[in-house]
């Protein structure tokens, strides 16, 4: 199943970033992250990290162009919430580094990285994801055509994978990165018009061909087992099981956490079958959430 929606799609959610002065408006937003623990949303744009309240969508503050706070951002892009260490991690793209903030008071903690090609150095990094289970940070080192894996404790270098090329495991300007609920690393390999999946150790698993479209970001929905990737002015959504076998779906944990074993086995069997059939068939269109709803009434 592939779902796409673009610029003309209607929406009913609230908007962030309106202001009377252009100096107080979000300019060309890059990325967004939700801090549910503190009811905040973070939005990165060309010069700042904007902070808004999730409760009433009101403006809270912005960070990044005030040297008095200890740092200045240049075209910040990726944002990640490190819930274990109570930090906000920002990809300070044109400064070729990661910036770590306290999630409590948004104060500057430290930064890692510098311009270069050696381990722990970056060339136009663009996206960041956190592997909470393994206490690691995943960074797309875009113009070095690689992915770097760092320790979430202190940002120290652990290992890297990828190089420039078109073969499996190689990249051409990798942009977005995300982690699925098995710890697999999914990379938006923009220049090669594909998504690539890797083990948590950086070994190539599989590629998803985006045809002639160049993905620039990717995200994983663990509650629905869906992968969303952005291309130009559209977003495509695919079922993870149709690409990556054995994806563990955690639809509606409040309902099927205590589901009987036969129900879980039935859904898993249906999922395996669905991953093998043609994506245009009726079987491929049935989401796991619907299966659990159907079986719950049997």
Structure in words:
This protein is 10% helix and 38% strand. It contains three helices and 20 strands. It starts with a strand and ends with a helix. A hairpin with a 4-residue loop joins strand 15 (185-189) and strand 16. 34% of the residues are buried. It has helices spanning 253-256, 261-276, 288-296, and strands at residues 2-6, 31-35, 40-44, 49-53, 59-63, 76-82, 87-92, 97-102, 108-112, 125-131, 136-141, 146-151, 157-161, 174-179, 185-189, 194-198, 204-209, 217-221, 226-231, 234-239. The radius of gyration is 20 Å and the shape is globular. By secondary structure, the chain is mainly beta. The strands form five sheets. A four-stranded antiparallel beta sheet has the order 1-20-19-18, with no helix packed on it. A four-stranded antiparallel beta sheet has the order 2-3-4-5, with no helix packed on it. It folds into two domains: 2-249, 6 Propeller (Neuraminidase); 251-298, no CATH class.
What's the SSE blueprint?
Blueprint: E1 2-6, E2 31-35, E3 40-44, E4 49-53, E5 59-63, E6 76-82, E7 87-92, E8 97-102, E9 108-112, E10 125-131, E11 136-141, E12 146-151, E13 157-161, E14 174-179, E15 185-189, E16 194-198, E17 204-209, E18 217-221, E19 226-231, E20 234-239, H1 253-256, H2 261-276, H3 288-296
Antiparallel strand pairs: 1-20, 2-3, 3-4, 4-5, 6-7, 7-8, 8-9, 10-11, 11-12, 12-13, 14-15, 15-16, 16-17, 18-19, 19-20
């Amino acid at each position: 199943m592939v779902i796409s929606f673009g610029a003309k799609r209607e929406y009913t959610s609230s908007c962030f970033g309106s202001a009377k002065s252009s100096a107080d408006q979000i300019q060309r937003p890059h990325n967004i992250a939700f801090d549910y623990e503190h009811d905040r949303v973070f939005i990165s744009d060309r010069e700042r990290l904007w902070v808004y309240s999730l409760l009433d969508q009101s403006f809270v503050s912005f960070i990044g162009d005030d040297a008095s706070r200890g740092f200045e951002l240049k075209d910040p892009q990726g944002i990640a919430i490190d819930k274990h260490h109570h930090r906000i991690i920002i990809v300070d793209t044109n400064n070729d580094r990661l910036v770590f903030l306290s999630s409590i008071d948004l104060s500057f903690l430290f930064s890692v990285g510098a311009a270069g090609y050696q381990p722990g150095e970056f060339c136009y990094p663009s996206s960041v994801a956190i592997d909470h289970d393994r206490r690691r940070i995943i960074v797309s080192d875009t113009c070095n055509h690689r992915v770097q894996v760092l320790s979430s404790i202190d940002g120290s270098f652990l290992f890297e994978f990828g190089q420039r090329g078109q073969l499996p495991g190689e990249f051409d300007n990798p942009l977005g990165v995300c982690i699925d609920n098995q710890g697999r690393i999914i990379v938006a390999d923009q220049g090669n018009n594909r998504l690539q999946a890797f083990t948590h150790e950086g070994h190539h698993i599989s590629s998803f061909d985006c045809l002639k479209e160049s993905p620039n970001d990717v995200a994983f929905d663990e509650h629905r087992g869906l992968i969303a990737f952005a291309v130009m002015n559209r977003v495509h959504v695919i079922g993870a099981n149709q690409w990556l076998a054995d994806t563990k779906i955690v639809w509606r944990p409040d309902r099927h956490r205590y589901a009987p074993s036969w129900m879980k086995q039935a859904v898993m069997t249906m999922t395996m079958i669905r991953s093998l059939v043609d994506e245009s068939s009726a079987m491929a269109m049935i989401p796991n959430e619907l299966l659990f709803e159907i079986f719950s009434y049997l």
